[in-house]
């Protein structure tokens, strides 16, 4: 499963804390906005408290209240909040107003001083201003203490605070969005070297031994590239030691194989030299011929494996290209194979439409043609007709080996180039499954393309299309 | 003819000696480069078959010293490494031919024969194909023991074919060999001689086969 990409991760890492911060900030803002609203509205509340105070008198031992309704009305109409008031003698009866307005025990200690507090009245939050007012009656020289309370529901204050909060949230939200956008772009920009690096890695040939370039990469990425390079280096050295081992092993096999081949041939000659040998001689002859065939097969496989390892892109082997006549190389190889073909009653022929020069290496081209003819002879069966053709195809040189054998099924035409691939249909034929791999490798080092098509009237056409010979 | 075989693998050395001896050659064997170099300073050989990977002194060095002494004896190099570079170096140092291990004995014998023939170019060589025999001394052919009557051109054509030793020859090349480069002879003229030769070889065990696009091949028909 793939992890969310880096951009999303960075954005999330930024967004979540930012939102938490924003929430905290909103809370703080709301608190400040509320206290600012209180500061503003409390003054009005205090004003109405004081205007109420002016109408309170003590006359004949009785508290008289002359309410300045105007002040209260003005106050009430101002914002839609409800005003509740209560005037009460300290420790005594309620003179006027809402008797159930709570005092929450927040009675100011000092006379004439005003105290503000929050409370809840009839299920609604209330801001209350309370005044402790001593009232004098000069004629009776009496003094009574009255508690005056004016409470106001706080919708207006809340509305103001919310308004402040909304404005500030809009601003901050915009900032967050902008910040995320900048981060998004910044991450994309910062990741650009990584993208370039990954494109470079993706475009690498699978056998490219060169280390990755660290120039122009951010220092954070350099350790990663260094580790990749170390890994490439390890893989390379492992591969090259494996190749060396393989090469050495194959070479070590050659001399013993030469001995077995020579000895089996000598033994065969001895047997054949005997006129009308006994039954056991004949049987020995049969065994020796089988042995000889097997050795030749082993020899061929070892040679083919060495060819492949030599042609391997890492063998350090360089092709020596020289202008040479393809038609001559092809004809000479065809000639070399003609005894093998004749022994099997195969009509092996050569056709040449033109003299065709190509850039190439003689022995490799000969090996290519040889492998194609070998395959055609092996798989077409006795009595087949095989034609090696050299022609010019526009600017290109074309080499074809055409047979009238069973051909290769379309779905197998890619697989037959794989090393050691043997088709189900040809399991009975003695072969190594390396011939076409070698053909393709040799074609590759010559910049040529190998294609398989059906021959007219059945059979296989192997075409090798060489690049145009560039004018010197 | 004396042949020096320098090969460090004792079994292979013995196998090759057997094969060369049965081809009526006298074989001296050396198993390392130093003794080969030593013996080449004092003895004359018709052919040297020299392995490249040798103990003490490698084959290429033996070859270099040999050529430095202006000894022109034909040298056939053997190697377990098929690398072109090595082959090129060997040929640069003056090797006459090159054979990569493992090889068929017949291949070695054919190369050895070719080198001997080249170095003893003047020496006549007899050849045989089925019941057709060629005597290089009087350039005469016998078929089944009886002399074969041929015109000079026919004789030349048959000579070229039988000396190819079972290898086909391209029509143009054959034409060049018979008429030379200068003569403005139609290459098709060859076909006439081949046709006549076929008539003369009719009912024998030998025939001239046309290989499509490749040329002519003199071959013994299998019974």
TrEMBL record, chain A:
Transmembrane segments: none annotated. The keyword Ribosomal protein does not apply. This is histidine kinase. PANTHER family: SENSOR HISTIDINE KINASE YKOH, SENSOR PROTEIN QSEC. Its main location: membrane. Its EC number is 2.7.13.3. It catalyses: ATP + protein L-histidine = ADP + protein N-phospho-L-histidine. Residues 188-240 form the HAMP domain. GO terms for cellular component: plasma membrane. Keywords: Kinase, Membrane, Phosphoprotein, Transferase, Transmembrane, Transmembrane helix, Two-component regulatory system. The keyword Amino-acid biosynthesis does not apply. GO terms for molecular function: phosphorelay sensor kinase activity. It is found in: Membrane. It is an enzyme of class 2 (transferase). Residues 248-470 form the Histidine kinase domain. Pfam families: 2CSK_N, HATPase_c, HisKA.
Automatic annotation (TrEMBL), chain B:
CDD domains: trans_reg_C. Residues 122-220 form the OmpR/PhoB-type domain. Residues 122-220 bind DNA. GO terms for molecular function: phosphorelay response regulator activity; transcription cis-regulatory region binding. Transmembrane segments: none annotated. The modification 4-aspartylphosphate is found at residue 51. GO terms for biological process: regulation of DNA-templated transcription. Residues 2-116 form the Response regulatory domain. This is DNA-binding response regulator. It comes from Paraburkholderia aromaticivorans.
